[in-house]
Amino acid sequence: MATEAKTARDEWGTRFGFLMAMIGAMVGVGNIWRFPFVTGENGGGAFILAFLVLLFLLAVPGLMAEVALGRYTGKGVIGSIRECVGTGGLVGLGLVVVLVNFALMTYYAPVVGWTLYYMLHSFLFTFTATGFDAGGFLDAFFANPTAMIAMHTVVMSIVAGVLLLGIKDGVERLVVFAVPALVIALAAIAIRAVTLPGAGEGLAFTFTVQWEYLTFSDTWIAALGQALFSTGLGWGIAITVGSYLRDYDDVPLGGGVFTAIGEASIGILAAFAIFPLVFAYGLDPAGGAGLAFVSLVQAFPEMPGGGLWAILFFSGFFLAAITSAIVITEVLITTIHEETRLSRGRTVLAVCGLIWLFGLPSAYSVEFLDFVDLVFANWGLPLATLCIIIAIGWFFGPERLRLLSVNQNAGIYVGSWWNPIVKYVIPIVMVFIMAFFAWENLGEDIMIAGMAVLVAFPVVGYLVMRYIDGRERPPEPAGAAGGDD
Amino acid sequence: MTEAMTLETWIGIGVAIVAFWGIASWAMIRTLRQEEQKTAILDEQRRMDTYSPKALSELREWIQANPDDPYVGDAKRKYNECVENLRETDQRFYDWSDAEVERHDPL
User: Fold this and answer.
1) Mean pLDDT of A357-380
2) How large is the average pLDDT for residues B22-40?
3) CB contact under 8 A, A200 and B4
4) Confidence (pLDDT) at A234
5) More confident residue, B31 or A46
6) CA dist A338 → A21, A72, A74, A301 (Å)
7) Lowest-confidence pick of A15-24, A202-211, A335-344, A416-425
8) Phi, psi of A477 (to 5 degrees)
9) Helices A381-390 and A60-73, packing angle to 10 deg
10) How many Å lie between the alpha carbon of A73 and the closest alpha carbon of chain B?
11) Cα separation, A107 vs A364, whole angstroms
């Protein structure tokens, strides 16, 4: 368990560092290849309006709650959940979040490895070489386990290297440069893309407002998924990043509004950068992940100075991916460092080593990675969100949190309208999302695996934390449940 | 570029830029300016008000309505810290009038 002898807790050195850490964590590969396509597929501007409404309704209040809890407790996920529920088995809600983050990193690290591989090849001008075949290049990479595992290894080494330096000297020092660099790279590509002949088709695909889509349930479900998953709500990231805030820092303006809307703004910028390119060169807009790794790669040889644009694009893509990987891993480092006798350095090496080890199957097989991704995206991540929001909404109580942390030193005032959103709306939405995904995949292997995660993770979390807390901590009740009645 | 651009497309682009980049830029600039303001106040007097008038009044009401709540001790500490800072400092972060400050006594 945490020892008193551990050194004083680190803090963000600057407000800008905190903001960039939040954005760096939340902006991942999905912002670049998924958001523009989902937008175009679901009514363009109509989807953007639905997305904006849901961001303000769910993501902004939810992120405020997470950051506020982290700032209030000054602890990682498990310590923060313990503050909400008291000692005992229910602290397992926090362990569920930790397990989900660990699982997420085991398949996300290999994906970051893909972006690294492409970035390295962009510097070698591979994509603009004569006779280059984009599809064959990706197939050859996927069929080469040595290269995939090597990239996975390099990625986890970079993650460990940054985290070994700590919050201020490692994470903050990286994100204050990486996130602006990502924005500049995307902005430069966007300016070039929208001036290409035929770019208007791409802008029309993504942004034309098709009002009738606002009446379709599919539009709102897609917007809901985007609002919840792209903002990283309930993954423990915001608790962890918030736990390193200083006493006088604001929570709701930076941790809530800026994080949710700023993160989404990167997706909007990606839409300006990518879809005009896709349409200008007659590529398939429905390429999904393949859009970045196959379709776009075919556009670069056609562009004047294409080799340099490829470097810019894949460098930005890699930065988006690696900053998320680093901050998601920090969620694990912070809480395991606090909950064990391990020093931070040993925690980093142990956690990164385990992620590397358990990530080998995903690095080896893309099919395995796709399967695990579907299981955790559909059920693991919503389960983590549910655990955190239940701890805040039903144990700590939103009113207590609003008064004690959200509105303390706040840049904007948050009224009591916030309480029912945290207590009722977000949990109901998360249950709905999981039920919807289960219905869509009824009886399939991923649904069965998802149900196994939904049952096994909470049971394991409860039993492990009941044993650990029962052995090492005196019984300590939670505050009166709710606290807002 | 303009051949495929309809009024609906321009509306969508305008909404996207204003609603996302506009709000995100506003939030970032506002929070960074507030940070500068807080730093200046803290450099000058080492402490500052920690709640807005409305938020501090709500905190007081909650403390009085929930005297047995397990978090009431922490709530009182935060309330008293803010009241003391308001009384003992000249520069304030939030818009406090003297009359509003006078309405608050330590609990």
Assistant:
1) 92
2) 96
3) yes
4) 87
5) B31
6) 21, 16, 11, 50
7) A202-211
8) -70, 160
9) 60
10) 12
11) 10
**8-state DSSP, A57:** I
Higher local confidence (pLDDT), A28 or A451? A451
3-state DSSP call for residue A232? coil
Distance, in angstroms, between A57 CA and closest chain B CA?
Answer: 15
Give the tens place of pLDDT for each residue, A13-70. Answer: 999 999 999 999 999 888 887 788 788 888 888 899 999 999 999 999 999 999 999 9
Query: Which of A64, A258, A272 should we substitute to test contact with B (largest number of B Cβ atoms within 10 Å)?
Result: A258
A13 contact B CB<8A: no
What part of B 25-54 touches A (C-beta under 8 Å)? 27-28, 30-32, 34-35, 38, 42, 48, 50-52, 54
Compute the distance between CA of residue A197 and CA of residue A263 in angstroms, rounded to an integer.
29
* CA distance, residue A114 to nearest chain B CA (Å): 29
Q: Which residues contact A256 (CB under 8 A, 6 or more apart)?
A: A60, A61, A63, A64, A67
Contact A203 B5 (CB under 8 A): yes
CA distance A193 to chain B (A): 10
Report ipTM (2 d.p.): 0.94
Residue A255 has pLDDT above 70, yes or no: yes
Sign of the four-CA dihedral A260, A266, A269, A275: negative
User: b/e per residue, A148-178, with b = 16+ CB within 10 A?
Assistant: bbebbbebbebbbebbbebbeebbbbbbbeb
Cross-chain Cβ contact A407/B55 below 8 Å:
yes
The mean pLDDT of A419-423, rounded to a whole number, is 97
Phi-psi region of A88 (alpha: psi -120 to 50; beta: other; left: phi over 0): left
Residue A91 and residue A465 in contact, taking contact as beta carbons nearer than 8 Å: yes
Radius of gyration of chain B (CA): 22
Give A475's DSSP letter: -
